[in-house]
Design goal:
Largest sheet: none
Mean pLDDT: 81
Number of strands: 0
CATH architecture of the domain at 97-302: Orthogonal Bundle
Number of helices: 15
CATH topology of the domain at 97-302: MetI-like fold
Structural class: mainly alpha
CATH superfamily of the domain at 97-302: MetI-like
Radius of gyration: 24 Å
């Protein structure tokens, strides 16, 4: 096997113990939350017999270690159990909402990547100028805005005042614009800052200064020497925020009434639907682990000097 193949196999083998650790932690954390889902389902006036029947139905009458072993086996086959609230398999509920979250997350990341990298490059190439200061001030203010406040501002100006975009919901490409803009503000600001710093650091390296001294075209230097060598730090930020957004943007989906898994999580917490909560959180953890795996492999492809 090649060096890259061995590297990928080692990274994949690390996924399983990480996933088991996450499942274990989430399972026991959810169990210590206050409230009993069977009482919520049966109602305050329910008899003890009904409560016991519901506990037996959902396996809550078994010892905790037995519940854990059964749940671990089922999760590893993508069976997250059945929702207390809807009596629907959790994975079915998640997958019915996840495509909406993917659409929103990828739209926001595309805005953040293109705008962030462009601002970072312009700022780095005009370091110390008015443009550079403007980019720094803009990203500082932009990243400091709470997403719910930015979302409400966007709704007020574009939906209420100008009436050119819908205020929320789903149904057409126009519905994606405002939540994507609101959701992209943090990754955009970080990507712009990291791109700027990475390019400035690369420009100060000896081989780049030598290429400039030899009179090579600026475009060739930027593409072959600067931007590629600056990508690793940028990819780290992109990978992290992609995982975050695919995990469900709870506040953004709530503000814009976007039916994604973030909003599903809020609904499940309100209903004390423990099975749904732990299923969503474990699914989000899986997304994070998968995205980090892709990022690690991308590191190795871009820069073979990276070692496990």
């Amino acid at each position: 096997m090649g060096v890259l193949t061995v590297y990928i196999v080692k990274r994949v083998l690390l996924v399983l113990p990480t996933l088991i650790g996450v499942i274990t932690m989430i399972f026991f954390l959810v169990r210590i939350l206050p409230g009993d889902p069977t009482h919520l389902l049966a109602g305050e006036q329910a008899s003890p017999e009904i409560i016991e029947r519901l506990k037996a139905e959902f396996g809550l009458d078994r010892p905790i270690y037995e519940q854990y072993i059964l749940y671990l086996k089922s999760v590893l086959t993508l069976d997250f159990g059945t929702s207390y609230r809807t009596y629907t398999p959790v994975i079915v509920e998640i997958m019915s909402r996840f495509p909406n979250t993917v659409i929103l997350a990828l739209s926001a990341m595309l805005i953040a990547i293109f705008a962030g990298i462009a601002l970072g490059i312009v700022s780095a190439l005009r370091v110390g100028s008015v443009i550079d200061r403007a980019v720094i001030i803009f990203t500082s203010i932009y990243v400091s805005m709470p997403v719910f406040w930015l979302g409400l501002l966007l709704i007020y100006f574009f939906a209420v005042q100008l009436k050119i975009l819908p205020a929320g919901g789903i149904g057409s490409p126009a519905h994606v614009i405002l939540p994507s803009l609101a959701l992209s503000h943090t990754p955009l600001s970080y990507i712009a800052r990291i791109t700027r710093e990475s390019i400035l650091e690369t420009l100060s390296q000896e081989h780049v200064r030598l290429a400039i001294a030899r009179g090579l075209p600026l475009r060739s230097i930027l593409i072959n020497h600067v931007i590629r060598n600056s990508l690793i730090n940028v990819i780290t930020v992109i990978g992290y925020f992609t995982g975050v957004l695919l995990g469900g943007a709870v506040v953004t989906e709530t503000v814009f009434a976007w039916p994604g898994i973030g909003r599903l999580l809020i609904e499940s917490i309100a209903a004390r639907d423990y099975i749904m909560i732990q299923g969503i959180v474990i699914f989000i953890a899986m997304i994070f682990i998968f995205v980090n795996l892709i990022v690690d492999i991308t590191y190795r492809i871009i820069d073979p000097r990276v070692r496990l």
